[in-house]
Amino acid sequence: MKGLIQRVSSARVEVAGDCVGAIERGLLLFLGVEQGDGEAVADKLADKVLAYRVFSDAAGKMNLSVSDIGGGVLVVSQFTLVADTRKGLRPSFTAAGAPADAERLYGYFVERLRARHATVATGVFAADMQVSLTNDGPVTFMLSA
């Protein structure tokens, strides 16, 4: 399981022109599920996302997490994160989790976040989504569990 987090001033996701999820200050998380991922991996990554220190403290150092600042988390499924791009000019998605397994684990991951954090919004799994964001910094990190 891989998560690409971006520190944002705001972010929103639309499906067919309708806003399905939006946050103000917080983290936009693109989530990719790989074959073999399970609930233990999802738990570990969820804990990491909520505790990862990417927000500035009073001294201007990245010492605060999204939980510390009470920010939002917007989770968007993105299987392309697990693509193998080492060979050729076309990505391979053989490492991606099967759609049904990935959707179940994505749902589990979101529920894990919601159980521990007040503001969690989502996109729609496997939908054609338009994501808008204002990256704050920019600050972007790839996380693995």
UniProtKB/TrEMBL annotation:
One of its GO terms (cellular component) is cytoplasm. GO terms for molecular function: D-tyrosyl-tRNA(Tyr) deacylase activity; Gly-tRNA(Ala) deacylase activity; Ser(Gly)-tRNA(Ala) hydrolase activity; tRNA binding. It holds the Pfam family Tyr_Deacylase. GO terms for biological process: D-amino acid catabolic process. InterPro entries: Daa-tRNA_deacyls_DTD (IPR003732), DTD-like_sf (IPR023509). Its EC number is 3.1.1.96, 3.1.1.-. It is found in: Cytoplasm. PANTHER family: D-AMINOACYL-TRNA DEACYLASE 1, D-TYROSYL-TRNA TYR DEACYLASE. A Gly-cisPro motif from one monomer fits into the active site of the other monomer to allow specific chiral rejection of L-amino acids. Homodimer. An aminoacyl-tRNA editing enzyme that deacylates mischarged D-aminoacyl-tRNAs. Also deacylates mischarged glycyl-tRNA(Ala), protecting cells against glycine mischarging by AlaRS. Acts via tRNA-based rather than protein-based catalysis; rejects L-amino acids rather than detecting D-amino acids in the active site. By recycling D-aminoacyl-tRNA to D-amino acids and free tRNA molecules, this enzyme counteracts the toxicity associated with the formation of D-aminoacyl-tRNA entities in vivo and helps enforce protein L-homochirality. Belongs to the DTD family. This is D-aminoacyl-tRNA deacylase. It comes from Exilibacterium tricleocarpae.
